[in-house]
């Protein structure tokens, strides 16, 4: 592996209390933070005036601080509110963008609230079934259990199968024999 050209290269960069690898480009390195996807990472880099292809380890301390400020408080630093992951928060009613542990905590509390008030979503979560309207006849078998098929009838050893010619012939009365008996 080639040695980094920059003597100030950092192998680990800490942004929003998450360690990011220094050898990746900053555009993709930011996606290691839970709550930030590729589109939002591009928005953050654009607002911080950082080239997306620049390696994370090559960032200056000033760029790291600028990026950290935007990542921690995105809505106050020019990120549009429609891109946030928590619009009209249930408790406060304001728009937020949550990251890492806060995101996990809030999602868990939302699920608990739905289960407690027995909403449709909460009941589906309780039963382990799909929540968003998917079909369940063929899919989601791991949630419903093992497939139980219909068992065939067992044939008795002395008789032929139900589809045999002998059974069909014996089941219909012979017309010629019936005429002779009259």
Q: Tell me, briefly, the overall form.
A: elongated
SSE order: EEHHHHHHHH
CA-based gyration radius: 33 Å
Q: Can you tell me the CATH topology of the domain at 12-83?
A: Helicase, Ruva Protein, domain 3
How do you describe this structure in short?
The protein is mainly α and 182 residues long. It contains eight helices and two strands. Among the domains are: 72 residues, Helicase, Ruva Protein, domain 3 (Orthogonal Bundle), CATH 1.10.8.50; 38 residues, no CATH class.
Structural commentary:
With 182 residues, this protein is mainly alpha-helical. Among the domains are: 12-83, Helicase, Ruva Protein, domain 3; 100-137, no CATH class. The protein has 8 helices and 2 strands. It has helices at residues 26-29, 38-47, 61-72, 100-116, 120-127, 141-144, 165-171, 175-181, and strands at residues 12-15, 18-21. It has a two-stranded antiparallel sheet with strand order 1-2. A hairpin with a 2-residue loop joins strand 1 (12-15) and strand 2. Helix 4 (100-116) packs across helix 5. It is elongated, with a radius of gyration of 33 Å. The model has no long low-confidence stretch (mean pLDDT 79).
